[in-house]
Amino acid sequence: MHDASSRPPLPGHLRWLAALAFVLTLVAAGWRLPDRNTTPAFALPPLAASPAAGLISQGMLPGVGSSAASPSLARLADGRVAIAWRSAATAARQQDAIWFSVFEHGAWRQPFPVSSTEEAAGSLFAHVRQLSEPVLFQHGSALHLWFAVSGAGGRSIVHTRSDDDGESWQGLARVAASPLANTDLRLRHPPLAMTDGSLGLPLSQTWLGGHGEWLRLDAAGKVLEKSRMPTASAALDPAVIAIDARQALALLRHPQQAGLQLARSDSAGEHWQGAPAIDLGGSPSALLRLPSGRLLLAGNAGQGRGTLAVWIGSADGSAWQAPRIIETAADARAEFSEPSLAIDGDGRIHLAYAWRGEGIRHLVFGEAWLDGGQP
Amino acid sequence: MNALSAYGLLAHGLIFGALASLLPLGMLRPKAALTATAIALIAGIAPIMHAVFGTPSVTLLVLAVLHLPTRPLAPLGYRGALGLLVFAALFYPAALGWGSFDPYALGYRPLLLLCLLALAGGFLWWRRHYLWLTILAVDLAAYASGVFNNLWDVLFDPLLVLLAAAIVGRHHLLAFIAARRR
Questions:
Q1: Would you say residue A339 lies in a domain?
Q2: What's the whole-model pTM score?
Q3: Which residues does chain B have within 8 Å of residue A25's beta carbon, measured at their own beta carbons?
Q4: In a domain, A148, yes or no
Q5: ipTM value of the model?
Q6: What is the total count of domains within chain A?
Q7: Average of pLDDT values for A49-59?
Q8: What pLDDT, on the 0 to 100 scale, is given for residue A344?
Q9: To probe the interface with A, which of B108, B139, B168 has the most A CB atoms within 10 Å?
Q10: Which residue range forms the structural domain that includes residue A310?
Q11: A153, B51: Cβ pair inside 8 Å?
């Protein structure tokens, strides 16, 4: 190693040049600092009246690839519902892809891939081996899509957006959410919209047991600030719902045990406090506010993934009803998992979930169906 | 493609070239570094480094560039490397979830960090570490460009910490060998 101190001293004007450059760039960096506005409130979407209907439709999504999983539903600006999901490579020469489709006139449009492993690697200039966990969300005129890319070493979250309801997508950009590029960040649930056009995105960090995190992103998907969700024990996959303009409730699951960890915020996500855990007898994961104002959770009831159920909760999440079973089976291949919920412009509720590792099942129903009748 | 991805790829190519320039090749060292940079970019080494280590910090890139000329500069000495290691040992566990304080979050609205950097710049000027003052100026210029989202990502990264660990380890290894020869 060469030692800088062994070199001849710099001429005087170069010393002053270094100092001048430092001061100027310090001022420029200060100029670039984000505005120190107070944290915006949650933008609460208007609740459309739900049709007085039961189960409206059910079916499988158009098959693509040999394995489809991790569906993510989102309501578009015009009230239609879109979906993104992952198809995994199951043979040589295949590659993972994130697929996209829109539900209109009672049927899904022909799906098309938003990104594949090769396209993601080309866009990020990095080695990418796997794509997973898409999360779709419409905010204003932009349709946002996040998903996880895994390559040599670990996994990170990337973002893209579409300004034409998913017809075309911008290039991918990594979400700078961690000082280690390949920490195991997990993204499972959609963000909340904020009144200033930014987004609050819940995700979890699986290191050191796991904990929930809250990112506030600008409209372009860049991180503006970050806060941590304290819970009594390790917790993953926060699903967040706004109670009012400033209050929010986050439901997180324990990595190994049953029950849900809770965190609450009274500052529109800027700070979070732990709350007493609850046990609903399963591991619910998708969260939605119903047209009546009540909360709807979807996930696996009991042990394993053989039973998919929904739970209805009070508007503030303080009380929950017994689960309603959506689908259950006892055979060895029974797996109904990774549910996603959305509500369309007509107040109809959409539920999509991975079905037996073969495809994605999609149900459309009115809120009345949740309160009575048989599946 | 975005600017940060392109930066990450090119920077890793240069860092690989700087690593190659550590080989004892005498006068051929700069040419070996140039060849290694080209190979890293063409043969897919840089994308793998990009995937494993993430986007390199500007500090690491500048240190790599300073190491490429015929007469290389290596301003990161033993004491600086040891200081960086101690800081990283506190920073990374806290940023990854140990405790309730997340120091990485400070980098998104880095007014406090900029104040601390102003003090650090004054210290470097007082101690006549003009090269480090210039490196910090390049870091701040990179942050001001808007390409980076978090000021910490400009200042240091895991690969730079590994480099610091190698410098500290080498120092102690040489000291150990010297002690054995006495």
A1: yes
A2: 0.90
A3: 137-141, 144
A4: no
A5: 0.90
A6: 1
A7: 80
A8: 92
A9: B108
A10: 51-66+282-375
A11: yes
